Amino acid sequence: MDNIPITQEHILDLPEELYEIFNTKQVKLYNKHQMVYRQGEAAEGFYFLKSGKIKVFVNSPEGLEKNLAVYNRGDVFGEASFFDGYPRISSAKAITDCEIIMMDKSDLLDLFKKKPLLALKFIETLSKKVRMLSNEIDSMSFLAADKRIAGFLLELSQSLNGEIEISQEDIGVAVGVSRVTVSRVLGSFAAKGWIKTMYKKILIMDHDALLNFTRT
């Protein structure tokens, strides 16, 4: 980690007016796999990622995880719940060691008083993220069931070394299809040698084949 002041090189999509305020705030270090905030918590602020990588994800009531975005150096995250005042609808976790700066409401209100047009820039940033999430929903809604299931298995396997403990019912809930459809698709994948199915457990046998299938 370094103590280099934040400059235009760091901030990829934000106005120069934020440079000074970011440089006056304390940088907090987060270790790899450390949580930044959790789904359901009150939003005390939003965050600027000075270095490292952060993933933002949601958990279903059944405990299933869906990745929404990965943020890199220079990105701002966690601002949606901060602005609307509702509990956070997602969680954020460090993928690598990170340097993070938190902005609270008083910081932003002072800045908007001095630079009212700056609020428009934040609206633009939020709009881009809404569009991104809309594309995610479209993909989940209209992508063929077998490709949605393949993509879901690949997501789960990323942190589980290819061994996934999950029921067919839970897969169906996660991707929005019936258990019968899940059973049929998993049987097809197993016949091709891409996976091996056991009781409430799936082994990924051919990661590349599944990945290529989702891209066709």
Explain this structure to me?
The longest helix has 25 residues. The chain has 216 residues and is of the alpha+beta class. A four-stranded antiparallel sheet has the order 1-8-3-6. Strands 2-7-4-5 form a four-stranded antiparallel sheet, covered by helices on one side. It comes from Alkalibacter saccharofermentans DSM 14828. Keywords: DNA-binding, Transcription, Transcription regulation. This is Crp-like helix-turn-helix domain-containing protein.
Q: Main sheet: which strands, in order across?
A: 1-8-3-6
Sheet bearing the most strands, described? 4 strands, antiparallel
Order of helices and strands: HEEEEEEHEEHHHEHHEEH
CATH architecture label of the largest domain:
Sandwich
Quick structural summary:
The protein is 42% helix and 22% strand. It is built from eight helices and eleven strands. Residues 15-129 form the Cyclic nucleotide-binding domain.
